[in-house]
């Protein structure tokens, strides 16, 4: 089976590599003033002032994986455990994310800090390097997807304007960001942010995935839909991920936010063990599906 997996992945790399849309290299290590202004404009449109008052963020998700990607990236997808999740993030220093994933094979608990990652499968700790690297990549990426322009307000190596494009029929301006380190255990990642030209909401982010050995060289993107304003912040509540490289336009994951609440007064102790405390374990407050 391992040989079949490697052959399939190699064939897909050959077939898809030339046709994929990549991410350009940055022109230097600096933040362009016009790019910074556009990013701030998007952050304000999403409710920056309200976001800055949030100390802990509590969300829940549910979604479906597409079959092919589960076969070629089983370690990253981890579909036996990652079908629905309750996720808790402390947004003030020190930054800390806890995720409780549920699937047909049981529970997966992830604790992610700026310098470490821990994983528990059905309460048993994992020392598997691929599982740890994949968990770090996923935890950081999902914080990026949820917090959008806020994620990029700090810690960019460079930020500049890029060529815009349409996202679901809406004209968007684009920013090219480089971050070092990137998300997960990556030394560096590149990102294209597509910001709605009319209302300045973030519509799409395209990104490299250098934090996992099996995804190095790959590029994916996530589109954001069905925005709702909760606790003064405009959040996307539906997310759709596709691969851009090595297999152009390969559907990966379609998921929805099912709950969100803020400022429970959570501490590190509430989310840093192999299970959430009772205070953290209470499900995120359910949200109504968007009418759009």
Report the span from N to C terminus. 43 Å
The total number of structural domains is 1
CATH class: Mainly Beta
The stretches of 5 or more residues where confidence is low (pLDDT under 50) are 1-20
CATH superfamily (homologous) name: Lipoprotein localisation LolA/LolB/LppX
CATH topology: outer membrane lipoprotein receptor (LolB), chain A
Q: Which H/E pattern describes the elements?
A: HHHEHHEEEEEHEEEEEEEEEHH
Q: Give the number of DSSP strands.
A: 15
Could you tell me the strand content as a percent range?
35-45%
Structural class given helices, strands, pairing?
alpha+beta
Order the strands across the largest sheet as they lie in space: 6-5-4-3-2-1-15-14-11-10-9-8-7
Count of alpha/pi helices: 8
How do the helices and strands line up, and which of them pair or pack?
Elements: H1 2-16, H2 33-46, H3 48-51, E1 56-65, H4 67-72, H5 74-77, E2 84-90, E3 96-103, E4 106-113, E5 117-121, E6 124-125, H6 129-147, E7 156-167, E8 170-179, E9 189-196, E10 202-208, E11 219-225, E12 228-230, E13 233-235, E14 238-245, E15 250-262, H7 268-271, H8 278-281
Antiparallel strand pairs: 1-2, 1-15, 2-3, 3-4, 4-5, 5-6, 7-8, 8-9, 9-10, 10-11, 11-14, 12-13, 14-15
Structure description:
The structure is a single chain. This protein is an alpha+beta fold and 292 residues long. The protein has one domain (21-281): Lipoprotein localisation LolA/LolB/LppX (outer membrane lipoprotein receptor (LolB), chain A, Clam), CATH 2.50.20.10. Helix content is 24%, strand content 38%. It is built from 8 helices and 15 strands. The protein has helices spanning 2-16, 33-46, 48-51, 67-72, 74-77, 129-147, 268-271, 278-281; strands at residues 56-65, 84-90, 96-103, 106-113, 117-121, 124-125, 156-167, 170-179, 189-196, 202-208, 219-225, 228-230, 233-235, 238-245, 250-262. The strands form 2 sheets. Strands 6-5-4-3-2-1-15-14-11-10-9-8-7 form a 13-stranded antiparallel beta sheet. The protein is globular and about 45 Å long. Mean pLDDT is 92; it is low at 1-20.
